[in-house]
């Protein structure tokens, strides 16, 4: 069996293995599917072995696994939690140690990989075998090679690498080690502590920047203007990735990035690497304190509302209104949250906990954000859906 977020139908090929998804339960259904005559009485809900869209699930690798899952005797909460944790920690170790980069040039034995990354050969072999079991590395005749997915997302030389994001996730995992203490006390540590070392800020900003590159082009395409904007303000956008994408689309546009001093230090380097330092100016400031200046045609509040308490969140929107020219535009990107009393999506539920653990804050429902926009004076609030970031909320509001 293996863990998956891919609710694929039927029998499919993955490498050299036959992977059986659950035929008994179809997407969006709690009832029986084509295998109901064999495995489930008419009308009885089947076990939740078929993952809901964008939820963690388990895909059986053979008919025995399939029967075990359909029987309802498999402790799925235990299986999913352990495998999920183990896979995440194993991938993080592989990235930190350089396993994927070592295999980028071609297949190698465990001893060859160990020699490159300076690790113990036997221990390296166990790590490679685990990554093979998780479907990220292929193994044949004593040699290991990368899968297409691993080469695309986890190697430094790939144009689509998410390596920095994995390293950032490692920083977040350190915060989760204190989860029980935070839940007991209700007092999380301050994630954006200015006293944190330079290494933290570098990992943090570059990790966020990698995530941002994943959807920045689509976002810029969705935000359209009657006339090209001339000045923009990116609040809390220290890595500069979203700003860079807007500047590429609008040649006459200049930008100010407002962020904390240590974030700016990393951001300056990233802007130089992009070759756009002549069109971007940095403003070192806590976004919750003081005004942001004025005369902007565009203001971005990307993934910052959830980083502040509720009173400050409303204040950010008011500050954005004051900073904009007449007919200026505010764009908000944040984590989706349905609100109300219904079940939450995987993203909403995780972010509720994540934001509290690192900031003592929450993910705010879209309805609440819209109320703040209306109260501040914004009009014509529209929502855009993102293909590459379906769990995100993108709101566009005009002054």
Key descriptive features of the protein:
single chain; 399 residues; alpha/beta; Arc Repressor Mutant, subunit A; Rossmann fold; 3 domains; seven-stranded mixed β-sheet; two-stranded antiparallel sheet; 15 helices; 44% helix
Give a quick summary of the entry.
The chain is 44% helix and 18% strand. With 399 residues, the protein is of the alpha/beta class.
**How large a portion of the residues is in β-strands, by DSSP E?**
15-25%
How many domains, in number, for the residues?
3
CATH topology tier name of the largest domain: Rossmann fold
Uncertain runs are 5-53
> Could you give a short account of the major beta sheet?
7 strands, mixed
> What is the overall silhouette?
globular
The first-to-last residue Cα distance is: 53 Å
Superfamily (CATH H level) name of the largest domain: Vaccinia Virus protein VP39
CATH class of the largest domain, please? Answer: Alpha Beta
**Strand order, biggest sheet?**
9-8-7-10-11-13-12
Q: Report the total helices.
A: 15
Task: Please write the string of helix (H) and strand (E) elements.
Answer: EEEHEHHHHHEEHHHHEHEHEEHEHHEE
* Second CATH tier, the architecture of the largest domain: 3-Layer(aba) Sandwich
Radius of gyration: 24 Å
Overall pLDDT level: 85
Number of strands: 13
**Helical percent range?**
40-55%
Domain O-methyltransferase dimerisation: 84-155
Organism: candidate division WOR-3 bacterium
GO molecular function, one term: O-methyltransferase activity
GO biological process, one term: methylation
């Amino acid at each position: 069996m293996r863990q998956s977020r891919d609710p694929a139908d039927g029998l499919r090929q993955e490498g050299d293995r036959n992977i059986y998804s659950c035929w008994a339960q179809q997407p969006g259904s709690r009832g029986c599917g084509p295998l109901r005559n064999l495995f489930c009485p008419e009308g009885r809900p089947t076990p939740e072995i078929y993952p809901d869209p964008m939820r963690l699930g388990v895909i059986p690798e053979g008919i025995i696994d399939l029967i075990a899952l359909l029987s309802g005797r498999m402790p799925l909460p235990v299986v999913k939690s352990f495998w999920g944790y183990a896979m995440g920690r194993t991938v993080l170790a592989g990235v930190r140690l350089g396993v994927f980069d070592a295999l980028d040039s071609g297949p190698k034995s465990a001893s060859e990989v160990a020699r490159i990354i300076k690790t113990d050969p036997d221990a390296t072999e166990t790590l490679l075998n685990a990554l093979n079991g998780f479907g990220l590395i292929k193994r044949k005749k004593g040699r290991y090679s990368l899968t297409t997915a691993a080469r695309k997302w986890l190697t430094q030389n790939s144009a689509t690498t998410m390596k920095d994001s994995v390293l950032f996730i490692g920083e977040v995992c350190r915060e989760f080690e204190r989860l029980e203490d935070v839940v007991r006390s209700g007092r999380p540590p301050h994630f954006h502590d200015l006293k944190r070392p330079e290494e933290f800020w570098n990992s943090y900003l570059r990790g966020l920047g990698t995530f941002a590159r994943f959807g920045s082009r689509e976002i810029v395409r969705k935000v359209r203007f009657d006339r090209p904007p001339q000045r923009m303000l990116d609040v809390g956008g220290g890595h500069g990735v979203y700003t860079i994408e807007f500047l590429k689309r609008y040649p006459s546009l200049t930008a100010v990035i407002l962020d904390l001093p240590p974030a700016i230090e990393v951001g300056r380097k990233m802007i130089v690497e992009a070759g756009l330092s002549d069109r971007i100016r940095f403003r070192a400031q806590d976004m919750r304190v003081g005004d942001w200046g004025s005369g902007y045609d565009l203001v971005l509040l990307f993934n910052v509302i959830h980083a502040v308490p509720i009173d400050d969140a409303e204040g950010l929107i008011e500050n954005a209104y004051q900073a904009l020219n007449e007919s200026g535009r505010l764009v908000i990107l944040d984590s989706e949250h349905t609100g109300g009393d219904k079940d939450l999506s995987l993203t909403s539920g995780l972010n509720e906990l994540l934001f509290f653990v690192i900031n003592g804050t929450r993910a705010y429902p879209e309805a609440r954000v819209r109320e703040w926009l209306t109260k501040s004076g914004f009009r014509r609030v529209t929502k855009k859906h993102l293909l590459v970031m379906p769990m995100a909320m993108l709101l566009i509001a005009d002054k």
